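User: I've been trying to design a sequence by hand for this structure and keep getting stuck. Would you show me what you'd pick, starting by listing the structure so we're on the same page?

Assistant: Good idea, let's start from the same input. This is the structure you sent:
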């Protein structure tokens, strides 16, 4: 039995990834051997989430996508990032007027600054704006918009879109292509 200082940890296949909270992130095999070490200073707290092919780590200023071997695939700037993970493993990162779609790589989609990442629905991200305006963004960047005043959303959806729970009814959102 080996003791390892850990602030946070993630299981990626047969590897345990550990953030020691000192700017050092390590991957361990089941027998305790270190597979790789990644060193990086952070700004504020560091957060992480497992992705389909690795790990996304972010702090107050930057996000870093690492593969299973600890190599940095890409890095990008973030500000007040909000993260959600879809049912297919797609990770969405909302930062300012950008929505990053993270799978094997990270791709940026420009969205409205006032929209907030609310949840995921199936494989898509659900963004909420003012006055009941919503937008659904899929991993392939397909975007659909709908209006639903005073609505709440379940993370369970349909192929056609999310369940929209409104004060007077429950419906499946009917989408209009965003141009």
């Amino acid at each position: 039995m080996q003791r390892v200082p850990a602030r946070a940890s993630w299981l990626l296949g047969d590897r345990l990834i550990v953030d020691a909270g000192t700017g050092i992130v390590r991957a361990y095999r089941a027998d305790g051997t270190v597979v790789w070490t990644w060193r990086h200073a952070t700004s504020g707290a560091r957060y992480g989430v497992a992705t389909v092919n690795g790990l996304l780590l972010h702090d107050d200023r930057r996000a870093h996508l690492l593969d299973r071997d600890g190599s940095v695939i890409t890095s990008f700037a973030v500000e007040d990032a909000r993260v959600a993970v879809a049912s297919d493993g797609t990770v969405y990162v909302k930062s300012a007027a950008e929505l990053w779609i993270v799978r094997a790589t990270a791709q940026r989609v420009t969205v409205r600054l006032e929209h907030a990442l609310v949840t995921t629905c199936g494989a898509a991200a659900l963004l909420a704006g003012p006055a009941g305006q919503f937008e659904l963004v899929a991993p392939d960047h397909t975007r659909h918009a709908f209006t639903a005043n005073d609505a709440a959303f379940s993370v369970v959806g349909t192929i056609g879109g999310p369940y929209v729970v409104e004060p007077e009814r429950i419906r499946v959102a009917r989408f209009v292509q965003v141009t």
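That's my pick for every position. To get oriented when you compare it with your attempt: The CA atoms of residues 163 and 172 lie 5 Å apart. The longest strand covers residues 152-158.
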